[in-house]
């Protein structure tokens, strides 16, 4: 799945929420999205899920998608079980399989007793369990989670963490926003920050490399780890300098800043993809 030059604004003369977004989502990848309130995180997720269409640019290769919104429309005129059964049908399940899956997911989240309860009568926490359950039904190739953990109890949050890891290991793409900075810590293949209408790699937490030379060009230091036996793809953008890093399979790549986005895309879309540990701005000779 790829976004090429994607922008989004609301109304012909409205301000741009996002501009010139280029992003690749390979199979089996986990992407965390961060940013301040109102920065455009939810807009990016809605574009990925196909809820919104780009105002400019293209999105190609979107697989079957499930989306858990930040606010669940709990006033729908149906019971929790009927709603999940209907969503299971949309995900491609037969009627009997969808009905079984609806009850199974409610029970796994500790909400089986509410199968026959109208959505409008559910508590906020139980409504959120229903919202998450509909996203996990079937086998979507892309799972988009917009603060899906908010309102869940501890056991349900752990179950969702486990399911995310399972889906990624099975080849699905998962993109998520969450207010907890420790959510799935260390598991994400990349962390992006939405800021000023742009979608950028988040700076890593590596030690400060020191002051930038006043007139020198900036560079980017990327610490990446490959799967067992993996080698760096040939012809990486910007011809980065490569050095061993801590860890048996980790390397440090230093490249001029204009090539950093292309280098990150090359690593994340490699077969198999590389895990990005950190991205740091550094002086570059």
Summed up, what is this model?
It comes from Streptomyces aureoversilis. Residues 200-219 are annotated as: Disordered. This protein is α/β, with parallel strands linked by helices and 285 residues long.
**Which class of the largest domain in CATH terms?**
Alpha Beta
CATH architectural category of the largest domain: 3-Layer(aba) Sandwich
How is the biggest beta sheet arranged? 6 strands, mixed
Helices and strands, in order, run as EEEHEEHHHEHEEEEEEHE
Share in β-strands? 25-35%
How many helices? The count is 6
Unreliable stretches, pLDDT < 50, 5 or more residues? 204-216
What is the domain total for the residues? 3
Identify the quaternary structure here.
Answer: single chain
* Cα-based radius of gyration, to the nearest Å: 21 Å
Name the CATH homologous superfamily of the largest domain: P-loop containing nucleotide triphosphate hydrolases
Q: What is the general shape?
A: globular
Mean pLDDT: 85
Question: Looking at CATH, which topology of the largest domain would you report?
Answer: Rossmann fold
- By DSSP, the count of extended strands is 13
User: Structural class of the secondary structure composition?
Assistant: alpha/beta
Distance between the termini: 35 Å
Helical fraction: 25-40%
């Amino acid at each position: 799945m790829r976004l090429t030059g994607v922008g989004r604004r609301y109304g012909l003369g409205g301000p741009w929420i996002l501009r010139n977004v280029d992003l690749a989502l390979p199979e089996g990848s986990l992407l965390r999205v961060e940013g301040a309130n109102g920065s455009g995180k939810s807009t990016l997720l809605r574009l990925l899920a196909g809820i919104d269409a780009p105002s400019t640019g293209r999105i190609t290769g979107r697989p079957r998608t499930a989306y858990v919104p930040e606010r669940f429309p709990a006033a729908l005129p149906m019971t929790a079980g009927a709603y999940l059964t209907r969503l299971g049908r949309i995900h491609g399940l037969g009627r009997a399989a969808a009905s079984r899956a609806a009850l199974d997911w409610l029970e796994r989240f500790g909400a089986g007793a509410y199968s026959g309860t109208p959505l409008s009568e559910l508590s906020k926490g139980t409504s959120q369990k229903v919202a998450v359950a509909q996203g996990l039904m079937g086998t979507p190739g892309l799972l988009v989670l917009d603060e899906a953990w908010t309102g869940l109890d501890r056991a349900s949050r752990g179950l969702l963490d486990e399911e995310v890891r399972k889906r990624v290991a099975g080849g699905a793409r998962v993109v998520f926003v969450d207010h907890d900075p420790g959510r799935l810590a260390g598991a994400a293949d990349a962390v992006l920050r939405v800021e000023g209408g742009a979608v950028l790699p988040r700076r890593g937490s590596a030690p400060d490399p020191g002051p930038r030379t006043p007139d020198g060009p900036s560079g980017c230091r990327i610490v990446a780890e490959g799967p067992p036996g993996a080698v760096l793809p040939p012809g990486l953008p910007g011809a980065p300098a490569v050095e061993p890093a801590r860890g048996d399979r980790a390397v440090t790549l230093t490249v001029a800043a204009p090539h950093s986005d292309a280098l990150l895309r090359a690593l994340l879309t490699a077969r198999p993809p590389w895990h990005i540990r950190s991205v740091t701005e550094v002086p570059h000779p």
